[in-house]
Design goal:
Distance between the termini: 29 Å
Bound molecules: hexanoyl-coenzyme A
Largest sheet: 7 strands, parallel
Radius of gyration: 18 Å
CATH architecture: 3-Layer(aba) Sandwich
Number of helices: 9
CATH topology: Rossmann fold
Helix content: 40-55%
CATH superfamily: NAD(P)-binding Rossmann-like Domain
Length: 284
């Protein structure tokens, strides 16, 4: 049974973001795709950025068909500052402005920390932390002009220290710190900076990779979640539309957890057994 609201237009006005422009890293897949689609359904134009040009172009085409809106794809690696500067340039050339930035690109996999190579740890830190910094720095002058809003996509992993997630939890902790520092420095320019922290969302790449750490066997096994259901990408889209709306105009520097209460039960009851005898973890 799901009581998720299926479309943000059931809750928020359809023309809420008419004439405004969103730039979203990771916007071609998973949670960020639904976040972007929702913003476009409310009138925004969007630019989505990620590494794989072909996948991104295909996603943009599907999203255009779904929304009837303007969405363009710009290939780029968030770890490369010059790629992010290029994405910002392409956005402004096409649409003339940037009102909203979503830092959504992330990398993750399950691995005990002793099994992480130095490069594996660095890779996730680079994608999540450097990536958020790079795109924010590149877009910030344009966001000041529009008194825009930034959303950093976080995770609750480090609140309880979920096993096999040291790399990702550390990265998300740094992102939450960045949210506060950016909010302080950009607030006087009229730019709000917040985080959204999704819990386990059914059917995403992230959850497919991580379900063993949560000892939740597939998308229907969510008895441990206080709200009794899996998260859906639409849950995060609802919060995105609110956070970018004038209704949130006095909210900055905070990270909103959207997880049905699940972070409080994140660490599996049998976790000592899990870390002493780690399960065989498939590389997905
Ligand atoms: C251990 C691994 C590994 C694994 C890769 N590595 N996968 N180590 N276990 N499963 C190591 C590699 O051996 C290598 O180290 C280093 O990490 C870099 O790997 P590459 O494949 O060269 O990196 P790259 O091509 O840049 O890919 C990055 C990636 C990949 C993170 C490894 O999975 C990716 O691009 N993911 C993007 C999509 C994604 O993961 N989305 C999920 C986000 S979920 P060596 O030493 O061999 O060179 C999320 C939500 C969390 O963030 C919250 C949920 C509740």
């Amino acid at each position: 049974m799901s009581n998720v609201c299926v479309d943000t237009t059931q809750v928020f006005k359809e023309n809420l973001f008419a004439g405004k422009v969103l730039l979203c890293s990771g916007g071609g897949s998973g949670i960020c795709r639904t976040m972007t689609t929702a913003m476009v359904k409310h009138g925004a134009h969007a630019v989505i950025v990620s590494r794989s040009k072909d996948k991104l172009e295909k996603a943009a085409e599907e999203m255009r068909l779904e929304t009837g809106g303007q969405i363009i794809a710009v290939a780029g690696d968030v770890r490369k500052p010059e790629d992010m500067e290029n994405a910002v340039k392409a956005t402004v050339e096409k649409f003339g402005r940037i009102d909203f930035l979503i830092n959504g690109a992330a990398g993750n996999f399950l691995a005990p920390f002793q099994g992480l190579s130095y490069n594996a740890f660095k890779t996730v830190i680079d994608i999540d932390v450097l990536g958020t910094f790079n795109l924010t720095k590149a877009a910030s002058e344009y966001l000041k002009k529009t008194k825009g809003s930034i959303i950093n996509v976080s995770a609750t992993l480090y609140y309880t220290g979920v096993p096999f997630q040291l790399h990702a939890g550390t990265a998300k902790a740094a992102i939450d710190a960045m949210t506060k520092h950016l909010a302080i420095e950009l607030g006087p320019h009229g730019v709000r900076v917040n985080g959204l922290s999704p819990g386990p969302i059914a059917s995403t790449v992230g959850m497919t990779k991580l379900s063993a750490a949560f000892k939740r066997d597939g998308v229907n096994d969510y008895e441990g979640v206080p709200m009794g259901r899996a998260g859906e990408t639409m849950d995060i889209a609802q919060a995105t539309v609110f956070m970018n709306s004038a209704g949130a105009s006095w909210i900055t520097g905070t990270t909103l957890v959207i997880d049905g209460g699940s972070w409080m039960t994140n660490t599996p009851a049998n976790y000592p057994e899990m870390v002493i005898n780690p399960p065989k973890l498939a590389r997905l």
